[in-house]
Structure formats: structure tokens, C-alpha cells
Amino acid sequence: MVNPKIYHAWTKNHPRLCFSELGNGPPIIFLHGIGGNRTNWLRQQECLEKYCTTISWDARGYGLSDDYSDALNFSDFSHDLFRLIKEKGIEKAHLVGLSLGARILMDFYARYPESVATLVLCDCYYSFENGLTDDKKEEFIRLRQSPLEKGKTFAEIAPSIIDSLVGEDCSELAKSELFDSLIQLRKASYLKTLRASVSFDVEGQLSDFLIPVQLIYGQEDKLTPPSLGHFLASRMPKARINIIPGAGHVSNLEKPEFFNNILKNFILEHLNDACYAKASKTSNR
Fold first, then answer.
1. Which of 39, 64, 106, 207 is such that its CA lies 20 to 30 A from the CA of 10?
2. What is the pairing mode between strands 213-218 and 116-122?
3. Domains of the chain (ranges plus CATH)?
4. CB atoms closer than 10 angstroms to residue 7
């Protein structure tokens, strides 16, 4: 999908981060999952472009963002996001993340709470060790890391990954979009992200999330089932949860209309909590 109105740019300094921008208004930033990129959020950007300046990024080593040669600490993603926020002249942003993107946002809030207006956390775990069952932890690694280390390509492993993620009535279009995202991945960066993800744990910090939080989970999510979302909702003081019927782990692609309705209602409720540091937003255009 291509929207001729969307604008692409890169942050300064290494690694440069590519982002796509659409619309005008208070800022909202979208973060993709471990097998995705910024284009996975196009339908959500189009849904909110009348109300918000929508920004979707490619994380370091993903999409059109730069590769990097050094080791990855999970907090590097948060520091990258803070760099993007400052370069765009944003004071507070609405932040939306799915899976890996949501984990980044939980880490980011712990480090940069003053930059966060609201959080939308989708299909995610709060602790790799305690949030996933032993079977799911083993499957997560088995389907992703092991085949790549044995020389398999992303095109070869994509079908099994997709089958493990989506709900039973997932459309062929959504599966095709997932496949296109997976085959664009870069092995070295992807493996670094996998290895950093297994140490992720914010379970002890959940009561510190004092801003409005919208949780969205697919009813048929086998990797991060809705029970994880209900646990988060019980620990985060201002959290609420919605479950999307028929959706698996990639709920924004599988059921975009349902997802967008939840997202839009939440963001409009808190729209003006996000703002730019100056009266007129900065721009790279």
C-alpha cells in the first residue's frame, strides 16, 4: 500500500532512523513488532491523520533505518525513540506499540516518563521469563533463531512464523502483508533483537505506569494471550483493556477496523495531552 500524502525522513546521527509522517495535530508515534516495519501502521496512520501528526518508525536495523555494528542493549531502542522525539520538537507524545514495539514503550516510559502522554500497548508480554509459558518461550526461539542460525532464509521460515501468530480467520491480505514484512528483515539485526528480547522484564515496575494506558489483545493470540493483558490491567493504575474477537498476535493487521475503533476512541479522549514543545511543530520537510 502506498499513500501519496505520506512523508518519509531520517533522524540525524548514527544509526539514522527512517520514519513516515502523515497528518496534522498532536503527535502520535507507532512502533512495529519484531518481524515488522513502519509500513505495518499505515491503516492506523490514515485513521488518525485528521486528528494527529502520525509518525511510524523503522527501529534500528529495520526497514530503511541504518544497520549498526555494535551489540544491542534493549534500552538502545528507548534512547533512539527519545532522539526522534527531541528532533521532532515533541514535548509529549501518544505512543502506540505492538509486541516488540510495546515492550520498547514500557522500557521507554520507565526512562523518559516526561515524554509520554498516553500508551497503547498491544499483544505484548511484560516479562519473557514470567510472562510466557515454557512452551511459548521454546517455540519463540525455535521458530525464529534456530533456523536462521542454520542458514534458513526469512522467506523459508516466514510461513511457519505467520501460522504461529495469526487467528484462524486471518485474511490472505494480512498474511501477505506479514510475509512482505518478514522477508525484508536483516538477519544480524533481527538476531540481536531476539537475544535482547529474552532478557526483557518490567514486571516490578508496572504500578509506576501513572498515565492512561490502553491495552489491546487479540482473542486468539497464542503467543501473548489476553490473560497477559488482564494481568497488566490489574497492575497498571490507569489501564483498560479491549479484546479483539478473531484476532491473533498481529491485531492491527488482522482486524484493522476493530483495532482502529478502539485506538481512535482512546486517542480522541486524551488527544490534547500530547503536544509539541513550541506553538508550531518542527518539521524536517
1. 106
2. parallel
3. 11-276 (3.40.50.1820)
4. 14
Q: What is the rounded CA–CA span in Å between residue 103 and residue 169? A: 27
DSSP string covering 206-260 = GGG--S-EEEEEETT-SSS-HHHHHHHHHHSTTEEEEEETT--S-HHHHSHHHHH
Number of neighbours of residue 167 by Cβ within 10 angstroms: 21
pLDDT at site 1: 57
In this prediction, residue 284 carries a pLDDT of 43
Half-sphere exposure for 95 (CA within 13 Å, toward CB):
32
Smallest CA-to-CA distance from 29 within 41, 17, 37 is with: 41
Question: What's the CA gap between 12 and 9, in Å, rounded?
Answer: 10
Residue 101: closest CA among 117, 124, 75, 135? 124
Other CB atoms within 10 Å distance of the CB of residue 283: 11
Mean pLDDT of 109-131: 94
Separation of alpha carbons 255 and 167, rounded Å: 10
pLDDT of residue 283: 46
Q: CB of 146 within 8 A of CB of 140?
A: no
**Phi, psi torsion values for 157, nearest 5 degrees:** -95, -15
Output the pLDDT for position 90.
98
At residue 108 the predicted structure's pLDDT band, cuts being 50, 70 and 90, is: very high
User: Which of 220, 279, 285, 213 is closest to 246 using CA atoms?
Assistant: 220
The phi and psi torsions of 180 (rounded to 5 degrees) equal -60, -35
